[in-house]
Amino acid sequence: MDIDQRELGDALLIKAGALLRLSSDMRSHEKAFALVQRAVIAGEVGGHAMLARMYEQGIGTRRRLTKATQHYALAAIHGDAEADRTWGWLMALEGFLWHRGDVFNRF
């Protein structure tokens, strides 16, 4: 029985979610981050919100608000209301920091 890309993406997100809930060590978080990336590549649009939160909070990766903003935007485009609110907040923060003369990437 063949698994299509969508089912693969779903399975990868489920496994990543389990790793994040059941373990708090850095190695498991890094593995979960890699699984979510693979899910997004496989076409699982729900993975964008999870990837955005991981970038925003620095879970399994270095904290990168610019990457978080990009993935929140992609999740919002696909109908995730929470991602849409967070994306708006991050865009407002970025505008404030640019206006203040701060560099957004330093966070």
Please, could you describe this protein's structure?
This protein is mainly α and 107 residues long. The chain has a single domain, classed as Tetratricopeptide repeat domain (Serine Threonine Protein Phosphatase 5, Tetratricopeptide repeat, Alpha Horseshoe), CATH 1.25.40.10. Helix content is 73%, strand content 0%. It is globular and about 40 Å long.
Question: In a nutshell, what does this entry contain?
Answer:
The protein is built from five helices and no strands. The radius of gyration is 15 Å and the shape is globular. The protein has helices at residues 5-22, 26-41, 47-57, 65-77, 81-100.
Give the secondary structure arrangement, pairings included.
Elements: H1 5-22, H2 26-41, H3 47-57, H4 65-77, H5 81-100
Beta-strand share of residues: under 5%
Q: How many domains comprise the coordinates?
A: 1
Named at the architecture level, the CATH assignment is: Alpha Horseshoe
Largest β sheet strand count, sense and barrel closure? none
E-strand count:
0
SS-derived structural category? mainly alpha
Quote the distance from N terminus to C terminus: 46 Å
pLDDT below 50 for ≥5 consecutive residues: which ranges?
none
Q: What is the CATH homologous superfamily assignment?
A: Tetratricopeptide repeat domain
Oligomer classification: single chain
CATH topology name, in short, is Serine Threonine Protein Phosphatase 5, Tetratricopeptide repeat
What's the shape? globular
The share of residues in helices is over 70%
Helical segment tally? Answer: 5
String of helices and strands: HHHHH
What is the mean predicted local confidence, pLDDT? Answer: 83
Radius of gyration: 15 Å
Can you tell me the CATH class? Mainly Alpha
